[in-house]
Structures are given as C-alpha cells and as structure tokens.
Amino acid sequence: MARFLALLQSPRFGGDDAVLLELLRAWPAGDEWTVALNATHPGRPVYESESAGRATLTLLPVPSDAEPDAPGAASAALRLAPAIAAARPDAVLISSGGFPPTSLTLGFLMAARLARAPRVVLAVHNEPNLGGGLRAVWRGWRGRLARALSDELVSVSADCSAKVAAACGGSVRTIPNGATPRPAGEAPGALRAELGVPAGVPLIGAIGNLEARKGFRTLLEAFRLVAAKRADARLVVVGAPAEPAEEFALRALAADPALSGRVALAGYRPRAWRHVPAFDIVAVPSLRSESFGLAALDGMLAGKPVVAARVGGLPEVVADGETGLLVPPGDPEALAAALERLLADPGLAQRLGEAGRARAAERFSAARMAAAYREALLGSPK
C-alpha cells in the first residue's frame, strides 16, 4: 500500500480538477489518497461526492489565489509543510494549471521539500507562457526552480511536454489525459430543457471557462455564419466566467439581433460533461494554446463528432477526418464550414462520433492514465 497526497491551488473548477477526479475513480484498490484544495473552491461539493470512499478530503490553509511572489511562496510553504509531514505521503502530486507555476504552486513545492516528502511530481496541465524580454527571463527562472524542486514533471500531450521541457531545460514525462465511460444520465431532451434549448433543433455545444485562449469569440463569429444558413441551429457554451473582458465580449456577440435567442452562455455547471449527450456537435475552437482538450475527449466519449482547432495537443486527441474535423485556429469561416458540413451530413457526423468513442476507449482510458501516474509517483521508469 502507498500513500499519496494531491495539492491543488486553483480557485475555480478546471481541467486539473477533472483529471484528478478521473484518477481517483480509476485508481487501483489498496492505496490511500488525501486531496487538499481551497475551502472556497466551487467544485468542493463535487469533490466531496466523487472522492467518498476513494480519498480523504482536506482544506488548504492558504488563500484561493496566488500570493505575492517570493514572500507568498515562502509563507505558503511554512504553513503547509507541517500538514504534509503529518500526512506521511510516499509521494506528493502537485497540479499546476500553467507553467511556470504561480507563487502559490512554488510554495507547494517548497512545502513538500521542507516536509521531506520522498517524491514530488508536478503535473503541468497547460502550455508554458514565458512572454518576452525581462518577463521571459523571470518566468524562465521560475520554471527552472519548479523543475529543481520536483523529482519529475508530467504533462498531458507530447506537444505540451516538449514545450514545458524547452521552458525549463529538463525532461518531461507525457501522460495523456483519460476518462471513464460516462454513466447513462438524463435524456437529451431533459438536458436541453435545462439549458433552455428546444428539443429537436441542431445543437452545437462547447465546454470551457470563458477565457480568450479558448476561442469562443471565433466560435460565435462562426455560428453567425452558420445561423444565416440554418435558421433552426442553436449554440450553447457551458463554462464559468474567468476573464471579465472576455465574458463581456461574448455576451455582446450573443446579443447580436441576428443571434437573438439562439446562443446560450450557460455558466458554470458541475460535471459539465453530463450535458454533452444533448449536443449534436462538440466544438473546441481554442486559439494559441490547448495542451490536450478535455472537451474533445468528453465529446468522443459521448459518441459525438468533434470540430476542433489544429493547435497544441488537439491533433493528438482528434484524428482529422476519422473522429472529427480539424480547422485552423482563429478562422471563423473554416470553423463555420466544418460545422455546416456535419449539420448537412448526419451520416458523416454519426460515423465520426462512433469512431471517436472507440478511439477514446482505446487510447484515453482513465485506467491507463492512472497506471501511468502511479508509475510516475513511485518513480518507475518511463
């Protein structure tokens, strides 16, 4: 039996949370997990439900957002080290939404070292963002510090691993995200009613926090083109506001008279994947970065065709022309053409969806992901 401790600093539910919950569901019996997250985390009820019988849930004695750089990291480390030592983990898994990590994540790494944790693994879920000039020098130093404080770095796609390795000057183990087959849930009609979408109309759906990098502006611009040809089509975006300017821009686009009543920004929904069976097409229009694309995997698990941007790790998930369609990022015309193609050819949409479900089961199972993480946490060879 091994004991593991997971530390998360995110103030909102995101991909790192979804991955950790999948790990807990698929983890082999016999080990013990403790999961520590912020008391203000909106996904706390989900963790309490999903981790029951699988992990002990504890609340972090740290703020819900990043503290001032060096003082904040040191303060977090001093407060957390005794709690980590008391848990006596064989390994600590620290999730970092971005790279280089925030000061608070660096604090987690320092705390694990102060607590003399036998092994510390940092999982990077998003592509590096170093910027330019002096900022790039500072962020590069932070990335190298994170690498030095970790026994191993893990990332979620070959593309993202290569970028993280280049940013920190060290090797990175690739462990693709995985998911369990979703349980049969509500009927699509009931899910559509919950989202305010009429039954029977073509529905394009997207899932993700409202951030500029997710490309939802491009999606709304593309949908305007689709809507001009398909008066019955609808669009729904399920995701929490994350950037005020982006939310404002999206709401302004959705308020266009040409789209009146046809676009729903549904906000944060626990277990957002449960809405995917209501979609006819899943759109993943990411712009400059997408380390993996959990929304694409959710679509494939549900047997839905995926239209995604050819960026980051998405081409590793979506096989173009086999399980979905890939388009250039930031190109509303190309995105609209792909969406229109699937709406006009239900047979093609069904074939792509069925192939996607098979690919998800073969390559992106939660059991395969959990086995790989266990090897990383215990220091097994790659």
Which descriptors would you attach to this protein?
alpha/beta, 6-stranded parallel sheet, 2 domains, 44% helix, Rossmann fold, 382 residues
Overall geometry: globular
SSE run: EHEHEHEHEHEHEHEHEHEEHEHEHHH
Integer count of domains: 2
Instruction: Could you tell me the CATH topology label of the largest domain.
Output: Rossmann fold
- The CATH H-level homologous superfamily of the largest domain: Glycogen Phosphorylase B
Give the N-terminus to C-terminus distance in angstroms. Answer: 21 Å
Taking all Cα atoms into account, the compactness measure Rg is: 21 Å
Query: What about the largest sheet?
Result: 7 strands, parallel
What's the tally of helices? 14
* Classification by helices and strands: alpha/beta
Q: Write out the strand line-up for the largest beta sheet, numbering strands in chain order.
A: 3-2-1-4-5-6-7
Low-confidence stretches: none
Strand element count? 13
Q: Report the CATH architecture of the largest domain.
A: 3-Layer(aba) Sandwich
Mean pLDDT: 90
| CATH level 1 class label of the largest domain | Alpha Beta
Q: Level of helix content?
A: 40-55%
Q: What would you say this structure looks like, in words?
A:
The protein folds into two domains: about 5-180 and about 365-380, Glycogen Phosphorylase B (Rossmann fold), CATH 3.40.50; about 190-365, Glycogen Phosphorylase B (Rossmann fold, 3-Layer(aba) Sandwich). It has helices spanning about 15-25, 45-50, 70-85, 105-115, 135-150, 160-170, 190-195, 215-230, 245-255, 295-300, 315, 330-345, 345-365, 365-380; strands at about 5, 30-40, 55-60, 90-95, 120-125, 150-155, 175, 205, 235-240, 265, 280-285, 305-310, 325. It contains 14 helices and 13 strands. The longest helix has 19 residues, at about 70-85. It is globular, with a radius of gyration of 21 Å. The strands form two sheets. The chain has a seven-stranded parallel beta sheet with strand order 3-2-1-4-5-6-7, sandwiched between helices. The chain has a six-stranded parallel beta sheet with strand order 10-9-8-11-12-13, sandwiched between helices. The protein has about 375 residues and is of the alpha/beta class. Helices cover about 45% and strands about 15% of the residues. The mean pLDDT is about 90. α1 packs across α14 (about 365-380), α3 (about 70-85) packs across α4 (about 105-115) and α4 (about 105-115) packs parallel to α5.
